[in-house]
Design brief:
The protein has helices at about 1-20, 25-45, 60-75, 80-90, 95-100, 105-130, 145-150, 170-175, 215-220, 240-260, 265-285, 290-305, 310-335, 345-365, 375, 385-390, 400-405, 410-435, 440-460, 465-495; strands spanning about 135-140, 155-160, 165, 185-190, 200-205, 225. It is mostly helical. The chain has 3 domains: about 1-45; about 60-130 and about 235-495, no CATH class; about 135-225, Pdz3 Domain.
Amino acid sequence: MNRIAQKIEQIATVFLFLFVLLQPISIAGAFIAYSFLALAWLIRLMLAPKLHLYRSPLDFPILIYWVLCALSALVSPLPASSWEGMRKVDMVFLAIVVAHNIPSVRRAKQLLAVLFLGTLVSVAYAGWQFVAGVGLHVRDLRQDSVLFRAGIRNDDVILRVDNQAIRRPDKFLSYLGSKTGDKPERLLIVHDGGFDVLKDAVAVEIPPGALPHSTNAADWGVNLQTEKLARARSFYSHPVTYAMILESLGCLVFGLWLGLHRRLSPATSLALMGLWIILALALGATLTRSAWLSFAFGCLAVVWLHDRRHRVRVILPLLLILAAMGTNTAIHRWRGVGLVDLNDPGTQYRMEMWKEGLKLAETHPWFGVGMNTIRDSPSSFVLEAESKYNLWSHFHSTPIQLAVMQGFPVLFAWFAMMGCYLVLLVRLVRKALEQENWVLYAMALGLLGGAIAFLASSAVQYNFGDSVVALQFWFFVGLALALNRQLLAETKLAGSTS
């Protein structure tokens, strides 16, 4: 039976590496890999019951948070909708699964190397999107055009034709112009362009026999141009999601470099710094102001913890001010808005949603209105921001979203859980420094910087509700728990041999 358990453990390890590799590339693939990882781990526990479930400082905060979320869903006006939302809450257990499947610091190093590899793939794809485009922008569309009759309008973006990505007008016209079959042609488009290209895409069909069978754009009654992205998003549906991923990863890499650069070979140190620069440039290409500042804050916090010299710590607040000023200038240049611009419709919408969210939270303080309740029963709530801007997404702040949807007890439990996580990381940094365990110290330093950046951006973004971002966050929590267990084991071993 132990031999079977060992095989299952090996299978779990394969799925763990696959999960980490796919995180920056495919959210669906990462979730599938995690599901098989969790299943293999549970089977191994049943086959080898003598294996221990390790305790961690976050067990109790995680349990309290989950129980309060479940209680809120149970008493929700729409229980089915709220229990659907519990799938995101259940991601908290990813940290426990990951922590139990990282047996050593060496394994943690290997997983980070694989994560960085997957991240470089995503950055390369983001660069390719800038060069090749993402589809075809429709302009000067005549009403007698076959595309107009199919439901396409000016400023729509054609993403795919018969499930094929076509980014050049001549390829589009030659492909459809040569079609002679009796089946309709299926086009995937997004109306009015925008960021959420894949998320908002809809299908339209051109009936058989309606095609002009011409490669001349005039015969189609349209002007097609390659659609280039204004903001990087890589494999993700929105640039803000990509920015949230990059900010934590960038802080992690910076912490690794800062903690190890004097103990690495010049080539390895240069490679780490090069990776950090690449991530910083990719983050810059998302044009996400909150992520820029959170990234700067996380990196400067890492320097604050690492370098205790007074003159360095005096300079750090000044650098943060310079980062804010630089962000304001850059956002003005590329997006035409300021860092905090009250004339920006996006800022106005966000502030109105905060105001209305606080009112709802005060009205439903104990259990909130229920997860997904506003989405599935909008007539039960009157949101002025939604009617004014014809838009409903979320409240654009993790604390406000939690208070509205699940109540203040869940919000306080979330604060407690995040506080315990930060305390865990700070202690891990200090203990690793005392023991001169430099690899573990650098990892803990980077994880702490990433956590600070994540929490900073959560004030103005509902990043905790983004499955992609939450997936990465809980993986980092699991990694921290595994490192903490490893350090405790080393401390106990050193004490027994002294």
